[in-house]
Amino acid sequence: MGAPECWWSTWRGLAVAVTAACLLPHVAARVTDALWWRPRRLEAHFARQGVRGPPYRFLVGCVREMVALMAEATAKPMSPATSHNALPRVLAFYHYWRKIYGPTFLIWFGPTPRLTVADPELVREIFLTRAEAFDRYEAHPIVRQLEGDGLVSLHGDKWALHRRVLAPAFYPDNLNRLVPHVGRSVAALAERWRAMACASGGEVEVDVAEWFQAVAEEAITRATFGRSYASGRVVFRMQGRLMAFASEAFRKVLVPGYRSCRPRRTGCRGAWTGRSGGA
Asked: GO biological process: what's one of them (predicted)?
């Protein structure tokens, strides 16, 4: 290698090193601000207004506490078993923190804050006079893959278009047309329960949640696609697995680029794609 080439290689390496040295503090400062200083500023901002909540923890926010509270609530049966107070079980973290911080408090999904509001007057004011200031949250990418572009995740003109397309399906006349389909599904459910009770001497114990899910899926399948639930059972089962995966991902903190560094679960996605393509 001649002197000019050696000089150029050295100069290029030096330029790259200097550029990296200049960019690294800037990137580090941006990351530190996004993951620490900005959440702390937001905590102080809301605290000055009397809104508090569980403390922010670096990167994970309140996710660990939320998962622990949910796991503790679901690890034991509801007491009493006939209670209709489902909130302490389905939203254990909300039930727990509301008793500590009141009806309005701040929680953290990673570095993303969420303001929890339960005061009826404040909710009414938000919906009627301040709705434009409260946009829907950006869904987790895995949850977005499951839900697709629906009303829950769309914004602006796209949301208005989808809302206008779906609105006729919920007109009273159209909803009344679903009554016979739902009635047949519920009657078939009651008949199956009666047959099971007769076969067991007049009394039987059933998992009501599983049966209610099946009858809802059957009513939707018949009313929407004109097919029986049995023909779409595999699709519903795969969708249930996808929902479980999405729920698991939703409880984790989103780190950009992390998904490409971990092994993927391809079995359910492949089966779902194959079924959808063959339909």
From this structure: brassinosteroid homeostasis
Measured distance CA(170)–CA(175) in Å, rounded: 6
At 278, the pLDDT band (50, 70, 90 cuts) reads very low
Assess if residue 215 is contained within a domain.
no
Beta strands in 71-204 (DSSP E): 104-109, 112-117
- Is 169 inside any structural domain? no
Q: Render pLDDT for 133-158 as a digit per residue (tens, 0 to 9).
A: 776 666 666 667 777 777 777 777 88
Q: Is residue 160 part of a domain?
A: no
Contact 215, 186 (CB under 8 A): yes
Per the CB < 8 A criterion, the answer to whether 193 and 204 are in contact is yes
Domain that includes residue 107, residue range: 26-134
The count of domains in the chain is: 1
Rounded to the nearest 5°, which phi and psi values hold at 11? -65, -40
Instruction: For residues 130 and 132, give the distance between their C-alpha atoms in angstroms, rounded to a whole number.
Output: 6
Spatial contact of 110 and 140, defined as CB atoms under 8 Å apart: no
- How far is 190 from 212, CA to CA, in rounded Å? 11
| Contact status, residue 221 vs residue 210, Cβ threshold 8 Å | no
Count of C-beta atoms within a 10 Å radius of residue 197 = 14
Rounded Cα distance, 116 and 245, in Å:
25
Torsion angles phi and psi, residue 109, rounded to 5 = -100, 90
Exposure string over 127-152, b if 16+ CB within 10 A, otherwise e: eeeeeeeeeeeebbebbeebeeeeee
pTM score over 0.90: no
Q: What's the count of helices (H) and strands (E) in the chain, helices before strands? A: 13, 2
Reduce the DSSP state of residue 113 to 3 states and report it: strand
- Using CA atoms, how far residue 95 sits from 25, 79, 88, 99, 117, in Å, is 42, 15, 5, 7, 13
